[in-house]
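Task: sequence design from structure.
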């Protein structure tokens, strides 16, 4: 089985990536971030394992590859001058974005050792209207006061700037669910996907972002990609990108 449990994966050293990538090399699936192809991707999941979810080369997941394709094909992110804030920066993007000559790239996180700035999302140490682009992906589900966090993201984004704020989302659920009375870690993992998630977002997530002031486009980008490429890139069909503008 090509399955790596999440706790082990977190500890996986980057020196091991070339060996895993060599072992899985082939031509069935392709990571669009670096263009490398493999016979299989790795399985991944906190509780339930998703087959062919994790790229052996960049360690990107479905959501990362979808975001990359959207940025590459639908925006000028890789060509126009941008001042960019990346909250809780993902490893699969970090080195690539840092090398981009067209962007002034700042990473921030309260705990991550790879971030440039130690920052609390509830009180960001940046001036109003500072950034052309803000990424904050799979963070808000960890934040008790997500309203305040969204307000801070809105505050530091420039007028007409773009933010992308992906979250784990149950699109079959109309309203977001949270219950702080559930304290057992196993029960929280079962209900919320991870024990340290404080809610499971429903479709009302987009309206909550709108209530902060964002103009939100609910982009199902997999509909614009040929079905055979959705399969080749190992994307999650129907995943919606919350693309936000100020």
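Answer:
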């Amino acid at each position: 089985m090509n399955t790596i449990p999440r706790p082990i994966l977190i500890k996986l050293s980057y020196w091991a990536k070339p060996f895993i990538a060599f072992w899985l090399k082939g031509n069935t699936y392709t990571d669009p971030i670096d263009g490398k192809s493999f016979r299989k991707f790795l399985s991944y999941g906190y509780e339930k394992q998703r087959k062919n979810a994790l790229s052996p080369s960049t360690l990107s997941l479905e959501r990362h590859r979808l975001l990359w394709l959207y940025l590459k094909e639908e925006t000028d992110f890789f060509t126009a001058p941008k001042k960019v804030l990346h909250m809780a920066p993902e490893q699969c993007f970090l080195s690539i974005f840092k090398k981009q000559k067209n962007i002034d790239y700042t990473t921030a996180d309260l705990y991550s050792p790879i971030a440039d700035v130690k920052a609390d999302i509830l009180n960001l140490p940046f001036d109003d209207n500072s950034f052309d682009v803000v990424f904050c992906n799979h963070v808000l589900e960890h934040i008790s006061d997500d309203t305040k966090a969204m307000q801070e993201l809105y505050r530091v984004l420039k007028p007409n700037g773009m933010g992308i704020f992906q979250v784990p989302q149950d699109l079959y659920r109309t309203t977001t669910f949270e219950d702080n009375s559930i304290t057992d870690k196993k029960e929280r993992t079962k209900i919320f996907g991870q024990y340290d998630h404080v809610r499971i977002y429903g479709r009302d997530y987009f309206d909550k972002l709108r209530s902060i002031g964002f103009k939100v486009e609910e982009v199902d980008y997999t509909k614009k990609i040929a079905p055979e490429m959705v399969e080749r890139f190992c994307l999650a069909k129907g995943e919606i990108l919350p693309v936000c503008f100020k």
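Residues 41 and 55 are 5 Å apart (CA to CA).
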